[in-house]
């Protein structure tokens, strides 16, 4: 029977090594005179002098650094870095931790045999020993993830010979925690490796320099995204398998901040291990090692900045993961995949309202909503993260929580997994203050937990959106805030989330005259949504948008030639098409500043030119020629607000609309009555009253000083 592996034990020596026991007498004799640290320093210096004198060519090979690079750091007065030295504290740092996350082994960095002259035989730790010990225990190493900031510690050729995959995710040490893109890359590599294991189990060795802070930081991220646990639980779990765990407070704080959790006072940071408290020859503490001697980036204060629609939200994800997500979106929307790299943003696009498609309002049943002047995003929610999908069809991860609905009316333990939504990001300017707040307005759902719903009518998808996405979030948030120890802080998420409202056509006049002027964000018109329509990807001829005349716009590609010609392009069949005779005016900057950019322009009928409104940083291509023609048609038809309202007044008198408006109004009143069950907490003269319902048994809990009186009344 194979015994359990002691991952903190020193590795077995290779056949060509002297055993550590053979040197016990020599070391013991010296220890009677000198301390262990003094012996180590003296022997290290002796080996270096002997190595330099006798074997000048048999030294570790390191990457060549250009003279300019060296001179730069000398000018910066950076301390010179000896690439041949051992990492501080490496000798006495335990080599392994125990298994975590199913098959992950945290480790300090194995050192190649080039370092053997600096390491006593019993302390040597290389990949040959790691592989040998795992084989003895019947375990096979399949993946090594290297988090160090250098390539000097070992060559990867030995791993490749053994068929072991090596992934390099370069992370600085010292006071710089790994960046979010590196974390996403790590989690993806581990997840993919685990998903490919079918018949035989293989292990993952994760190491930084000592296998504690960077390694622990990454593993905790993986645990948080793959299992249901809090940050405190994940940190504790890592500390149990790799004592003392993460011992840098900045790393622990970064984890709590990233996952929007409150850190309790009862979760202190472990003290620095004894083996890491190494002193130099002057008795000074050796600074933490970032592997190549390059200082970590200075920490900057997080000054408050003004939010704009052009801000880039979220963190990059690996290209392979993005390709997989793109395929899921195309499959959900029942689109052909095409060639790699040819996938375009598949979200539904409205068309401009003109005198022809205005008649669709008479033929089909429509609801209306305001057209927010924000940034278009689709959103993909998975159990390991939430991803914003921009108009370039790029995915970026944001840390958000979307619990599933619990049929038992309690807190849901599961989160959404492959739920696809559509919406727009706006920036609310809060009244009576200068504070801004991002809000994601969700107006459609295409998939829920991997099941496509695009063929269902819009009104069903819209109701599902509230029931399955919004209500579970609100319910959990309410209950978390009521508890004494909230483990998740919704208020720390990067933006708020709500479902966008749609109204009967009979309310359009109030929508234009009262609602839009009071909005805390910009709006540039209306959107008319077919109430019974399926979700139609890309251009949807039945999804109509009406803009104020001054806001009708086209997105062009603008270029300035060498002979100072100013050209506007749209796309036709995926290629640039020059708009002959079209010109554009700029009011704030020189035209050359806009060259090569996508610009949104509005038409000025008085001078017959386009005027630049803004740069579209969220788009990489201009409008298609067909979109351009539809916008021009809308501009020529000039459906003003007055014309639109007159048309709608006639439309809602049609029997089709009159009957459905009457029925929908009754249904709305019935729903409102059913929702009259609510909690109302009122404080008056020290008396707290909790009201539980209407037309039901309800209770008043009257609390005055230390007396509790219970009244049960029936209406």
UniProtKB/TrEMBL annotation:
Q: Which GO terms describe its molecular function?
A: ATP binding; DNA ligase (ATP) activity; GTP binding; mRNA 5'-triphosphate monophosphatase activity; mRNA guanylyltransferase activity; phosphoprotein phosphatase activity
Q: What is its main location?
A: nucleus
The UniProt keywords, alphabetically, are: GTP-binding, Hydrolase, mRNA capping, mRNA processing, Nucleotide-binding, Nucleotidyltransferase, Nucleus, Protein phosphatase, Transferase
Q: Indicate the segments forming the Tyrosine specific protein phosphatases domain, all copies.
A: 184-253
Q: Is Nucleotidyltransferase one of the keywords?
A: yes
GO BP terms in the entry: 7-methylguanosine mRNA capping; DNA recombination; DNA repair
Q: Where is the Tyrosine-protein phosphatase domain?
A: 105-265
Q: What is its EC number?
A: 2.7.7.50
Where can this protein be found? Nucleus
InterPro entries linked: DNA_ligase_ATP-dep_cent, Dual-sp_phosphatase_cat-dom, mRNA_cap_enz_bifunc, mRNA_cap_enzyme_adenylation, mRNA_cap_enzyme_C, mRNA_Capping_Enz/RNA_Phosphat, NA-bd_OB-fold, Prot-tyrosine_phosphatase-like
The Gene Ontology CC terms held by the record are: nucleus
Check the record and name the Pfam families matching this protein. DSPc (PF00782), mRNA_cap_C (PF03919), mRNA_cap_enzyme (PF01331)
Q: Which residues form the active site?
A: 208 (phosphocysteine intermediate), 371 (n6-gmp-lysine intermediate)
- Binding, GTP: 376, 391, 422-424, 545-547, 614-619
Q: Which reaction is recorded as catalysed by this protein?
A: a 5'-end diphospho-ribonucleoside in mRNA + GTP + H(+) = a 5'-end (5'-triphosphoguanosine)-ribonucleoside in mRNA + diphosphate
ATP-dependent DNA ligase family profile domain: from which residue to which, for each copy? 440-576
Q: Under which name does UniProt file this protein?
A: mRNA guanylyltransferase
Q: Which organism is it from?
A: Citrus clementina
Lineage runs: Eukaryota, Viridiplantae, Streptophyta, Embryophyta, Tracheophyta
């Amino acid at each position: 029977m194979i015994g359990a592996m002691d991952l903190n034990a020193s590795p077995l020596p290779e056949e060509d090594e002297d055993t550590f026991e053979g040197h016990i007498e020599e070391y013991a004799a010296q220890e009677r005179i000198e301390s262990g640290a003094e012996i180590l320093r003296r022997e290290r210096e002796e080996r270096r002098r002997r190595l330099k004198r006798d074997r000048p060519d048999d030294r570790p090979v390191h990457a060549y650094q250009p003279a300019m690079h060296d001179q730069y750091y000398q000018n910066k007065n950076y301390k010179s870095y000896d690439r041949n030295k051992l990492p501080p504290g490496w000798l006495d740092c335990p080599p392994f931790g125990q298994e975590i996350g199913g098959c992950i082994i945290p480790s300090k960095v194995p050192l190649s045999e080039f370092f053997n002259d600096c390491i006593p035989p019993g302390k040597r730790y290389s990949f040959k020993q790691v592989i040998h010990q795992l084989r003895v225990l019947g375990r096979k190493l399949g993946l090594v993830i290297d988090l160090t900031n250098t390539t000097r510690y070992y060559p990867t050729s030995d791993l490749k010979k053994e068929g072991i995959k090596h992934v390099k995710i370069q992370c600085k040490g010292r006071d710089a925690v790994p960046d979010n893109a590196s974390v996403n890359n790590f989690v993806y590599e581990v997840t993919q490796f685990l998903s490919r294991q079918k018949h035989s189990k293989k292990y993952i060795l994760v190491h930084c320099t000592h296998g504690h802070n960077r390694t622990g930081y990454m593993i905790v991220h993986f645990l948080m995204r793959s299992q249901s646990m809090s940050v405190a639980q994940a940190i504790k779990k890592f500390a149990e398998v790799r004592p003392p765990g993460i011992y840098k407070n900045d790393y622990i704080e970064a984890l709590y901040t990233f996952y929007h959790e409150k850190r309790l006072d009862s979760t202190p940071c472990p003290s620095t291990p004894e083996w890491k408290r190494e002193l130099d020859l002057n008795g000074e503490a050796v600074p933490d090692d970032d592997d190549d001697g390059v200082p970590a980036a200075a920490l900057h204060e997080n000054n408050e900045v003004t939010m704009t629609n052009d801000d880039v939200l979220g963190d990059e994800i690996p290209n392979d993961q993005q390709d997989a997500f793109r395929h899921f979106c195309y499959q959900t929307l029942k689109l052909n995949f095409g060639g790699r790299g040819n996938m375009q943003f598949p979200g539904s696009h409205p068309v401009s309202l003109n005198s022809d498609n205005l008649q669709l309002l008479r033929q089909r049943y429509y609801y209306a909503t305001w057209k927010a002047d924000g940034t278009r995003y689709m959103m993909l929610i998975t159990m390991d993260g939430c991803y914003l999908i921009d108009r370039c069809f790029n995915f970026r991860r944001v840390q958000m929580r979307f619990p599933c609905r619990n049929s038992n009316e309690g807190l849901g333990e599961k989160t959404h997994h492959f739920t696809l939504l559509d919406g727009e990001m706006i920036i609310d300017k809060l009244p009576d203050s200068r504070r801004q707040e991002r809000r994601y307005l969700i107006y459609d759902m295409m998939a829920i937990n991997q099941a496509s719903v695009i063929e269902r009518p819009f009104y069903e998808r819209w109701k599902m959106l509230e029931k399955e996405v919004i209500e579970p979030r609100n319910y959990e948030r309410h209950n978390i805030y009521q508890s004494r120890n909230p483990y998740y802080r919704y208020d720390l998420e990067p933006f708020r989330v709500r479902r966008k409202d749609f109204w009967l056509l009979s309310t359009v006049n109030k929508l234009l005259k009262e609602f839009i002027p009071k909005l805390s964000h910009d709006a540039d018109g209306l959107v008319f949504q077919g109430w019974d329509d399926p979700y139609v990807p890309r251009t949807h001829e039945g999804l109509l948008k009406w803009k104020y005349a001054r806001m009708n716009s086209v997105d062009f590609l603008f270029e300035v030639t060498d002979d100072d010609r100013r050209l506007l392009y749209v796309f036709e069949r995926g290629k640039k098409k020059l708009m002959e005779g079209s010109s554009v005016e700029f009011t704030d900057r020189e035209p050359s500043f806009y060259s090569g950019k996508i610009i949104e322009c509005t038409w000025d009928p008085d001078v017959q030119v386009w005027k630049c409104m803004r740069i579209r940083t969220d788009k990489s291509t201009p409008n298609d020629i067909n979109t351009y023609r539809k916008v021009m048609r809308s501009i020529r038809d000039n459906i003003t607000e007055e014309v639109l309202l007159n048309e709608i007044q006639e439309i809602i008198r049609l029997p089709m609309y009159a009957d459905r408006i009457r029925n929908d109004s009754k249904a709305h009143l019935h729903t409102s009555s059913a929702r009259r069950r609510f909690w109302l907490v009122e404080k008056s003269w020290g008396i707290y009253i909790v009201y539980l319902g209407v037309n039901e048994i309800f209770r008043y809990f009257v609390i005055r000083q230390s007396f509790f009186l219970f009244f049960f009344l029936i209406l």
